[in-house]
Amino acid sequence: MILKQRFLEAVVKGELGSIEDRGVVVTLKGFKKYFSDVKTDYINSFLPASTIEPGRVEMTKTRFLLRIASGVYIVHPDAIDQFIEQQMQHDDIGDEAGGDKEGGENESNDNKSGDKGSGVLYRV
């Protein structure tokens, strides 16, 4: 799984960032702590490299964060919506492959993170 997918999954599960009135806010410090398993310099450049240029508001495939202060970013809401939609489509594909939506083996709403629901946008 690429770092962007891991990042968005952590945000959606409520494991990274905090939900505020203006959106999901992620700090560089929290990001580095959460992704401490990444041992390259990429960990230092991921958030800045994913930032939408000043004056623009549309996200792209590689730029999906808004910088609001030094080391503080908001995840573009369209990036979250797009990630959730992709996960739901993936779940639907798994269900069509023979899963049973009513309590069957492919039940996708189990909470692998152990989160009791606070801050969870969608269970992945």
Question: Could you please describe the fold and organization of this structure?
Answer:
- A 4-stranded antiparallel beta sheet has the order 1-2-4-3.
- The protein has 4 helices and 4 strands, in the order H-E-E-H-H-E-E-H.
- The longest helix has 20 residues, at 77-96.
- 37% of the residues lie in helices and 14% in strands.
Task: Write a brief caption for the model.
With 124 residues, the chain is an alpha+beta fold. The chain contains 4 helices and 4 strands. The chain is globular, with a radius of gyration of 16 Å.
* Class from secondary-structure proportions: alpha+beta
Number of helices: 4
Number of domains: 1
Mean pLDDT: 81
Total beta strands = 4
Question: What does the secondary structure layout of this molecule look like, with pairings?
Answer:
Elements: H1 3-13, E1 18-20, E2 23-27, H2 28-34, H3 42-49, E3 65-69, E4 72-75, H4 77-96
Antiparallel strand pairs: 1-2, 2-4, 3-4
Key terms for this structure?
4 strands; alpha+beta; 4 helices; 124 residues; four-stranded antiparallel β-sheet; globular
